[in-house]
Amino acid sequence: LAVVLLGALAASLGVLQLLDAGRLRAPIVWAVECGIVILAATLVRLDIEWRKQAASLRSLTDAVPALIAYVNAEERLVFHNRAYYQRFGQTGQSAIGCSLREILGEPLYRRTRKHVQLALNGAEVSFRSFYRTWDGVRCADRVRLVPHVSDDGRALGFYALLTDVTEQWRS
């Protein structure tokens, strides 16, 4: 939206160069400049509000005692909470943009792939996953994959909720 509005304003400024009608040009330039200032202020306010909402969502998901992630249709991680990062973030950096194969490693990815495909085909999937983390810790998770489907039925990705059941599994 901002790009469209700025494009329209830029086009208006181009038209102003063509309007060299003395008295008429000054009020039009003033109006366009006011519009630019109002647009810029609105964009800054919207950006600040968006950042506040994003920070609030991040706080909420980081407080949940479970691993939360969103994976797109290309099987790339789009979002994850702190718990997910702590479990799978072996490099010390965010895994955003990485493929599931890169994050999970080949053996776990092969065992998980059929569930991922079901979710990407629109089915809600629940299963248990047993694996070792990148640092060798044995884990067990109850995994739930919830598909994200567009209005026209196209799979956009899925939401993943992993609940650590390692202690129950060990006992």
Largest sheet: 5 strands, antiparallel
Strand and helix order: HHEEHHHEEEH
Quaternary state, please?
A: single chain
Shape: elongated
Strand content: 15-25%
Helix count equals 6
Number of strands: 5
Strand order of the largest sheet: 2-1-5-4-3
Share of helix among residues? 40-55%
On the 0 to 100 scale, the average pLDDT is: 79
**SSE-based structural type:** alpha+beta
Low-pLDDT runs of 5+ residues are: 1-6, 14-21
- Rounded to an integer in angstroms, the radius of gyration calculated over CA atoms is 24 Å
Distance between the termini: 55 Å
Q: Would you mind describing this structure in some detail?
A:
By secondary structure, this protein is an alpha+beta fold. Helix content is 51%, strand content 23%. The chain has helices spanning 2-18, 25-63, 82-88, 100-104, 106-120, 166-170; strands spanning 67-72, 77-80, 125-132, 138-149, 155-164. The N and C termini lie far apart (55 Å).
How does the SSE layout of this entry go?
Elements (H helix, E strand, L loop, with lengths): L1 H17 L6 H39 L3 E6 L4 E4 L1 H7 L11 H5 L1 H15 L4 E8 L5 E12 L5 E10 L1 H5 L1
Antiparallel strand pairs: 1-2, 1-5, 3-4, 4-5
Helix pairs in contact: 1-2
Concise account of the structure shown:
The chain is built from 6 helices and 5 strands, in the order H-H-E-E-H-H-H-E-E-E-H.
What attributes does this structure have?
single chain; disordered N terminus; alpha+beta; 6 helices; 5-stranded antiparallel beta sheet; 51% helix; 5 strands
